[in-house]
Specification:
322 residues, alpha+beta, Tumour Suppressor Smad4, 2 domains, four-stranded parallel β-sheet, 11 helices, 29% strand, globular, Diacylglycerol_kinase_cat_dom
Length: 322
Amino acid sequence: MSSNFALIRNPRSRKNVNDPDNFRKEAQDYLGKWFVEPPSRESIIEAVQDMSRQEVDCIAVDGGDGTVSDVLTAIYHAYDDEALPAVAILPSGNTNLIASDVGFGQRGLSALKRLEELCENKTMRYNVRRRHALGVRWSDPARPAVLGMFHGMAAYTRAIEIAHKPAILDHFSHEMAVAITLASAFGKLIFRKTRDEWMKGEKVFMAKNQENGQEDYCFLFLSTTLNQLTKSIWPFWNEKEGGIHYLKVKDHPPHLLAASAALLTGRSPAWLRKNRHYDSGTAHQITLKMSHDFVLDGEVMESGADGITHLFSGPLFDFIQA
């Protein structure tokens, strides 16, 4: 394995557009060819393939959730499962949900210096958090699987589309954009026309762990392989280690405001767990059939011609901690 590490930096990420501490030059001087600023997803794939051939054992990612997802996907297709590189996440994007659980803990020059120390002392994997990636596979074999860490659909897709509007995305910090998105989403539930449209949900077939599934209308679906989210938000219960945590909320859920308040503060009271409109647990594989788009790590994706996607518990990654 290489004794050095590579750094993939997204120059278009919010916190990378300006470079006040001359990070780019410092990283380039230290890493040489292993400092990469890919202009496209295809360029990320090519860069990671080169890293695999040279047995690079650690890849730092300086970007947001979308960039992390692209890099994990490229690693999945380029490296053997038994020789996966460790990953260090330096959060700098519009959404940095993944870093709230497995981020490096530093960014900028301090992160670069710390990575240099770990590399020189050969202690890159001395302190890591291990998480499975969340994989998405389409029924079309010609479409390659992708990896991420957080998946959502139905009302979540609608909310993300609000957040991605230029009026929000280009003018507010990530935290403020999240607040505005939540306010806008709840606003849609106040007015009767949009409330009825959102509350009726989307028709979704869901099957867990190759069991017989069922089709019904879904107001909200979330899934992740992370162990914590930003702040105290944790909308899951009945969790088990090593799988996909999921939450499914059926159409026209009762007590929605009370349920939201509880889940946004990491609580799942008994009345919520017993309500048939709210279902949460852990699975190693989830098959979904739907006619609408879904979201993976902030990126809106099509569900394919037949609407069938398979969520699976992907490879186990070492995420380096500073």
